[in-house]
Amino acid sequence: MATVTLTADNFDEVAQGDGIVLVDFWAEWCGPCKRFAPVFEKSAGKHDDIVFGKVDTEAQPELSERFGIASIPTLMAIRDGVIVFAEPGALPESVLENVIEQVRALDMEDVRRRAES
């Protein structure tokens, strides 16, 4: 599946649905972002059931501010509308695949229960 460009106009619609959404916060001038982009794209090609979205922090500063993005690239994982992971840094392919496995394995009822307490 190709990556989706996320903007302030479509972010909530994409992120609040069922399933997994991985979001790459990036900028054109960012060297580590450019190194992470092919890893993210490759993973998008392997996981048709996951939405892979990209937020250009220069074009969408309101989204960066909304989520407190202070360093890029930052990878955010959202499952069933709940942010379950957010970490800055260009992840190697093996680590990205591990994050995906962990997000898939989450017990979302338990995640919601913990978030409420």
TrEMBL record:
Site residues (Deprotonates C-terminal active site Cys), renumbered to this chain: 24
GO molecular function terms listed in the Swiss-Prot or TrEMBL record: protein-disulfide reductase activity
Key word Electron transport present: yes
Keywords in alphabetical order: Disulfide bond, Electron transport, Redox-active center, Transport
Annotated active site: 30 (nucleophile), 33 (nucleophile)
Domain named Thioredoxin: residues: 1-105
One Pfam family from the record: Thioredoxin
Disulfide bonds: 30-33
Annotated PROSITE patterns: THIOREDOXIN_1 (PS00194), THIOREDOXIN_2 (PS51352)
InterPro entries: Thioredoxin, Thioredoxin-like_sf, Thioredoxin_CS, Thioredoxin_domain
Site (Contributes to redox potential value): 31-32
SUPFAM superfamilies per record: Thioredoxin-like (SSF52833)
Residue stretches spanning the membrane: none
GO cellular component assignments: cytosol
Sequence similarity: Belongs to the thioredoxin family.
Protein name according to UniProt: Thioredoxin
Organism in which the protein naturally occurs: Actinomadura verrucosospora
